[in-house]
Each structure stands twice: as C-alpha cells, then as structure tokens.
What we know:
Blueprint: E1 2-6, H1 9-26, E2 31-34, H2 41-48, E3 58-61, E4 63-65, H3 76-88, E5 95-96, H4 108-117, E6 123-126, E7 148-151, H5 154-160, E8 173-176, H6 179-183, E9 187-192, H7 198-206, E10 224-229, H8 234-238
Parallel strand pairs: 1-10, 2-3, 2-6, 3-5, 6-9, 9-10
Antiparallel strand pairs: 4-8, 7-8
Helix pairs in contact: 1-2, 2-3
Amino acid sequence: MNIIVTQTPVEAGIAGAAVIADLIRTNRRAVLGLATGSSPLPVYEALEQLNLDFTQVQGFALDEYVGLPDGDLRSYATVIRTEVVERLGLRPERVHLPRSCSAEQDDGAAYETAIARAGGIDLQLLGIGSNGHIGFNEPGSSFDSRTRVLTLADQTRSDNARFFDSLEDVPHKAISQGLATIFEARHLLLIAHGIDKSAAISRALRGPITESFPASILQRHGSVTIVLDTAAATDLMLRPSGAQGGL
Length: 247
C-alpha cells in the first residue's frame, strides 16, 4: 500500500492524476472506475491539464442515486458527463453507468457482465464516507457483494445533503458496485481530503478488517494508492502503525 500525503486538496488531486496518467500512458485502452463526490473532482481537474488522449479509454461509474430524473444536475450521470467525459474527452459511448428501473429493480447483473467483457477495471478511483462506505456500500455490506440497489444510511444522506436543497431531497436508495466488484479492480486509488475524513482513513487503514467498516477491505488488496491532504492524514499520523489490524 502506497500512502501519499500532500499539503492541500489541489495537490492531492495532482498526485492522484499522476497515478492515472501513468496508466493511460502505458495503456491507452485502459478501463477506469469513475467516482464522483468532492474528493475525486481535483483529480479530474488535474488530469485535464495533462492533455492525455482518453478517446480509447473505457469508464464504469461507481454508483448512482435511485429516483432522480434523467438530466438531474445532482445525478452522478450528469457529474460524470460534465466533469469527466467533457472535461477529459472520453467518448460518451465508452462510459457506462449502473441503472435502476426502480428502488427494487436494477441492472446489476448486466453491469457486472459489461465490466467483465471490458476485461475488468484497471484502476478504480474511490472516495470514502465518514462511516467507512466506499461506493455506496454502507456498513454491514458483504465483502462478497456485487452491483445492486441498496438503502443509504442516515449518515450518508446527511453528509450528502450539501448537494441538495434539503435533507428531504436526498434519495434514500442508490445503485452501487459491490465490494467484491471494487476489490477485483487491478489497482485501487483512494482520494480523501479534509479533517472530517481523518478518522475514517485511520480506521480503514489501521483498524480491524470488518464488514462493519467497508473501507477496511482495502487492507487486503495487493495494489492500493492512498492520496491524502494533511488534514485527512491527521489521525493516521497520530495512530501507531501497530494498532489494531495494522498495515
């Protein structure tokens, strides 16, 4: 596991972009797992400045809300289109998102098949929730889970309310790649910044490996890069490396 600590979120974005850029320069047909949220955005902004050729790259979004109408500005489909496809020059037809017909039905199996047909994900970009979720895999999600519709935790809805007019507007369900799906990516790149992510980062990387804290599965993966700003690294640097479940 490679942990990179930078001074600012912008520098974290630059460091994360460098990891992706190395992959693209080696493999122009790479398959990327695309995350949204505030943490990955500086990565996409930094990638734009590198002027790489993304036209042969395939992308698979990590997750999506259930119940938002097509074209909703708060949907991850819109964020992926504006912040990734248009910014970096990916071909829209090569970028895939999980779909849900309703809160009870989804195309999880078809999405898993599409990922497999693409040859698997070379690099999965991730953020982390304050309760340890990656994707929308909330505490208690099975390490064997696959793409599916799930119910968002109250903490997750509260954390994401800043993107909506009110907490009541935040969807209660989402469709997300499962933990097993994420774990099968050949490289995992997690970006986090801000003091509010500090405790989650420390617990994910040095706490026990448990389904009650989904991000702890990162400790089992053989190829992981963690990029943090100094605020997000605060608890990690204060906690002895020999603490529960150490690295």
